[in-house]
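Record now logged for everyone:
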Amino acid sequence: MRYIRYAFLGALAVILIAVALANRGLVTLRLLPAELAEFLGLTQTIDLPLFLVIFGGIAAGLLIGFVWEWLREHKVRAEASRKQSEVKKLERELRRVKGQRDEGKDEVLAILDEAS
């Protein structure tokens, strides 16, 4: 299974390198459309190779997706944490009750009662 993973990562690396080499041309990035940028006085642009724009877009999309899912699953994590603390509380209470029940018994009988 490890070799399949390495083969997949190698193929992915070759594909990404091929995309980068094929898209080395410079593109101009603007924060706002030209008319709006002139109106606001923000006419800054940056020239980058196209492959950086593509890979940056992919990375930004992944990051936004991960953060979105993390925020969306907050309720599920909170509920799981609540249930886990409730289970721990009930286990402590069960140990305490069993200890009180087995207080006057012989140790062997208490172990047998606990096993059944």
Q: What stands out?
A: The chain has two domains: 1-72, 77-116. Strands lie at 26-30, 45-49. Helices lie at 2-22, 34-40, 50-72, 74-101, 107-115. DSSP finds five helices and two strands in the chain.
